[in-house]
């Protein structure tokens, strides 16, 4: 992205923030992320053409989408927004413009809940993470990045919001458990991103080369204390748009950064 393109993009973001009355939030969050987070230097390698298909298949399995059909309607769901809890399964709607419904499948019946139906600042559901046997963390975006704690009825088709984990830096796009710790991945456009440990709220910025990617998916590498993360740029610039990196939860460090030079996935 050249200087003119960056200026145009910056003005676009500024105007959108002004129009949505988010100027203070944008400035405050950007300042915090820029000065508080200090990315590490991890030397990348590039994924060659022979490994591209394998990378794309793994990416789709972790960070892709599925389609469900409540009442015959096709609804897109991010894989990170599918969560088994209690005796049911939760699905979080993802629509580019407006789609904030949560579907609870219980005994082959699909129930619908929409906590933000009338809130134009909430566009869609990024992910749903299981916290306990009956509690989940539902992460919304984008104008407002809410991360709500929701209680799922035990054997009953009910959802009840019981608290909010984060209102400014929330809206996490992915998450996974390593032993007894939950790690969450952030989603900020053209700003520094990180993974965060749920209980301590300690944030680990992505490596410098991909620090402005958002975390599109992650999973625990079995038999290790490591997480494999998939990242993307929100704005396509022609290369370095997709990457995969390993995070060690013992040393809190990143390694094995690989970048895929591809316009779109």
How would you describe this protein?
With 265 residues, this protein is of the alpha+beta class. It is built from three helices and 18 strands. The protein has helices at 3-19, 23-36, 49-63, and strands at residues 45-46, 65-68, 75-85, 88-93, 102-106, 109-113, 124-130, 135-141, 147-152, 159-166, 174-178, 181-185, 194-197, 203-205, 214-220, 226-232, 242-248, 253-260. The strands form four sheets. It has a five-stranded mixed sheet with strand order 1-18-17-16-15, with helices on one face. A five-stranded antiparallel sheet has the order 2-3-4-5-6. The longest helix is centred in the first third of the chain and has 17 residues, at 3-19. The protein is globular and about 50 Å long. The protein starts with a helix and ends in a 5-residue tail after the last strand. The mean pLDDT is 86.
Number of strands: 18
Distance between the termini: 19 Å
Element order: H for helix, E for strand = HHEHEEEEEEEEEEEEEEEEE
Helix content: 10-25%
Largest sheet: 5 strands, mixed
Shape from CA axes? globular
**Which residue ranges are poorly predicted, with pLDDT under 50 across at least 5 consecutive positions?**
none
Number of alpha- plus pi-helical segments? 3
Strand content: 35-45%
The helix-and-strand class reads alpha+beta
């Amino acid at each position: 992205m050249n200087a003119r393109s960056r200026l145009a993009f910056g003005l676009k973001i500024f105007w959108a923030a002004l129009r949505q009355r988010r100027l203070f939030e944008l400035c405050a969050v950007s300042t915090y992320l820029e000065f508080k987070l200090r990315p590490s230097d991890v030397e990348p390698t590039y994924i060659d053409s022979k490994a591209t298909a394998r990378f794309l298949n793994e990416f789709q399995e972790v960070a892709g989408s599925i389609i469900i059909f409540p009442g015959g309607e096709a609804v897109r769901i991010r894989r990170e927004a599918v969560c088994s809890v209690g005796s049911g399964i939760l699905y979080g709607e993802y629509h580019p413009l407006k789609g904030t419904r949560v579907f609870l499948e219980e005994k082959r019946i699909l129930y619908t809940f929409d906590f933000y139906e009338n809130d134009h600042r909430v566009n869609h559901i990024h992910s749903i993470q299981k916290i306990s046997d009956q509690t989940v963390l539902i992460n919304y975006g984008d104008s407002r990045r809410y991360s709500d704690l929701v209680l799922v009825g035990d054997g009953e088709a009910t959802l009840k919001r019981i608290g909010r984990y984060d209102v400014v830096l929330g809206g996490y796009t992915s998450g996974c458990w390593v032993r007894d710790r939950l790690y969450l991945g952030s989603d900020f456009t053209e700003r520094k991103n990180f993974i965060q440990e749920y209980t301590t709220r300690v944030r680990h910025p992505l490596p410098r080369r991909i620090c402005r990617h958002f975390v599109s998916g992650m999973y625990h590498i079995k038999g290790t204390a490591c997480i494999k993360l998939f990242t993307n740029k929100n704005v396509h610039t022609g290369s370095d748009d997709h990457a995969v990196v390993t995070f060690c939860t013992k040393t809190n460090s990143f390694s094995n950064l690989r970048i895929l030079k591809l316009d779109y996935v």
